[in-house]
Amino acid sequence: MQRQWLDWQGPLLPAAAAWLIERHAEGRRCDLRAVRCVLPGARAGRVLLHLLLRQCAERGLRLVPPQVLTPGALAELLVPGDSRTASTLECTLAWMHVLREARPEHITPLLPSRPDFYDWPAWHDLAGTVVGVVDELSAELLALRDVARVAARMNMDREAERWAVLERLEARYRERLAREDRICPHERRREVIAALVDGATPVDPDHQLVLVGVVDLARVHRAIVRAYGDRATALIHAPEHLYAGFDADGCVERNFWSGRPIEIPDEQLVIADRPADQAQAVIRCLADLRGAYRPEEVTIGLGDEKLAPTMTQAGQWADIAVHDPRGLLALHGRPFRLLQAGLEWVRDSRFFPFAALIRHPDVEGFVRRLLGKAKPQAGPAPEWAEGKPVEQVAEDVPFSAGLEGQGSKDSKGDVAADDHTIVEWLTVLDRYHTEHLQDNLGSAWLGDEKVARRMQILHDIVAKLYSPLVGDRRPLTQWFEPILEVLRNAYGHLDVHAKAISDQRVANTCIEIAKNLGGLTGAAPGLQPDVDGPTALRLVLAQLAGLRVPEDPRSGQIEMLGWLELHHDPAPVLVLAGCNDGAVPQAVTADAFLPDGLREHLGVLSNGRRYARDAYLIEAIRRSRVKCTFIAGRQAADGEPLTPSRLLLAGDLERLPARILRLCDPNHARRWALPYGAPPSGATSGFRIPEPGPAVEPPAMTVTEFGWYLRCPFRYYLKYVRRLRLVDDSAVELDALQFGNLTHDVLQRFGEDPSIADSVDPEAIAKYLDGVLDDRARDTFGARPLPAIRIQISRLRQRLVAFAPHQARRRADGWKIRRCEFELPEETYLQIPDQAPMRIKGKIDRIDQNVRDGSWMIIDYKTSESGHSPDKTHRAARGSASQWSDLQLPLYHHLAAQHGYTGPVQLAYMNLPKKPEQEALHIARWTPADLDDAVGTARDIVRSIRAGRFDIMGDFAARYQDDFANICQTRVFGGADDLEAEA
């Protein structure tokens, strides 16, 4: 191995390109075909080739490019697999079967809680972890028995037991592979590497090996490099006088770099508070450049990759385009989320997964297309792999296929769009749920036939989208094509050349998913579990979790790179965010299988080795840039405090106290209230309470409207003039109004049934009410209502049982039910002196007559926990006086007289008690003067409404549910059980 020094006064890759050209240029040509250049990442290789081309062009040379490899690709080149070598998926599946079939005592050391035997995804996750650990050990030429032996020597009894179990299970794993004519890829690698070390298998003598800034190698890669002997060269990005900092393979010497001071000047350091502030600090640094550098001369570095979405969003605000060369994570893309959203619903057809699913924009698009509301794109649909086996998908570029049922044409099995167009299906969905709170969507639809039909249509359309995932159990890979069919259903109309960038990303994501699934179809059949569609989808999503979708760079974009990519980036300006411990330097603090102490003794990549590597990298990066800024955060996105990078504290000891104080002082942390590029705030707030409109003349008013106006005229305006309603799908139990309506329905049936209404038998009354409640609840909420509703129905049943003795005694005392849910006739008016009368609408819950003296009682049912008297609910204290807060019973008294209910008339609440011994009837004690005052108040309200007076009241009573709190910019906290129902 030869070592060559490239001084870090400039970036590494331009110097490496020049070094290669100087040694291989001959005449008008630079022939590098016999050179294998090894770089840590694929992007570094692409940049090197670009620089070689540019420098050769500047020198007038014709380039024959070298072979560019990563260390892993170099190992694959020298140890190629064959048809018998197990793929990563096959290794994972083999381990999954072995772990799943192992005895419980073998699993306990690996996993405290054993998954269910049929929980394939959980076993797959455990197997994936084991495969990852085995891969890492194999790269260091270690076997499982080596780990068990070292752990025992270190007196790590639990670790030793764990690895001894894994060693025994590994034998079964190999047997499982052999049964399918497969061999573990690590066995083949160990054989080849052993032959290389012994010299029995020489490497290709016609090739040279050049390691470009590769400062950390696993043992397997070191063995391959050493096999090249003098034909291998390490290009080390450092001045030659630091030769003691690198070993014979060109990798960093841990002791040298762990103890070397790192001086980062204060002017290069920025402390920001939250992740959003770190992103804004980056944007400010870019703005301070004032256009002195082109976008390709500037790089944004991310020590913590979780900052990427925040950084991208900040760039969009500031009109700065950033490019992540690694590509976008597929799991953040629309297709991945479409599959995730459908997963729970396909497995269990319940309302809440369905409601979340229907809100996915691409499900909405599918519904619109199937109903013919969206026109298909002009021209022929893009081609895709429709009808081809999934393994051929990787050969095709466009992801698209014709959408069955597109447009308005009706076909067998499709919904006729022209007959059943749904304008706002989300509103229909929310209203349906608000009324019925139906959990299980597999049963019959409830309520109004027209609404139920709409719900059925919506349900059937979504079922059509995910229908490929329905079917009997089958081998895993046989589900790949149905999964792709779901994507074709949703995205078959999109093309990689679509106008919208978002649509291009969707199409490219589908292509990458198809390619990856196509590469997995060759898994041995005997290793594949027989699973249903949802389980297969969970396994596929787990397999694709790390998939990235590459995006071609566009002109004017700034590259956004991860920490380990920055050393090989040639841009002269770097702004690095996320300079916090655990990210820079990288560290792993919780490894269930290989804790750091065990890693140290095994010689596997440990935190100490990572620190030495990152200490060198930050020094080489800082010294080779024209401008370099390091940004450290104080808080994570969840508010957890962050520790600044130890590399920022590795400088001169005399200046260390000042640096610590600066890093820890919150006053030094930069914060920005608004992102750079945000529009300036206006002179007035954009969150103003809307002004009510002009005066209105309602044709009629309900009795309950008067109470709303008394509580808050503005809320009355929103509810009854603008007719706003709160409709959502978040409810999991009946609100006060629904609970009251259910109660009224049951009691109405009782009062209108002559066979039971006159009964004086409490048990007969209770039995009757119990049966009516069962029927009404089943009709409204289905046979399997939500658990909270079942509890509420049980509570209502208890109250009805307690009500029965009160009703029996009342009838025995001579009170007979004359009317139930008496609807005021159309000719019911409230006379307004000097103005036109106001027609009044409303329903009186119950009117009783005493058959002994002919007196009347107007009754309003109540179901609240408080059991307040009529006076308490109708009057509210305003300073030292008492004012009307509701006019329901006084208006019933006044209006009922127009229809013959005259003479002695009492007003009362009938509160359904929890227990029979509790009081049920609460009679109002108002005088005739009180009732006249209430009617006068009602007339004043009518005049105010006609005059358009809708002032807002800030002290809205907490016992009433405030659906308009957001509009009124208030919040009301109160117990749900004490909310007054409007029934």
From TrEMBL:
Official protein name in the record: PD-(D/E)XK nuclease family protein
Coiled-coil ranges per UniProt: none
Pfam families: PDDEXK_1 (PF12705)
Signal peptide, first to last residue: none
PD-(D/E)XK endonuclease-like domain segment(s): 701-956
Organism of origin: Nannocystis pusilla
UniProt cross-references to Gene3D superfamilies, sorted A to Z: 3.90.320.10
SUPFAM superfamilies: P-loop containing nucleoside triphosphate hydrolases, Restriction endonuclease-like
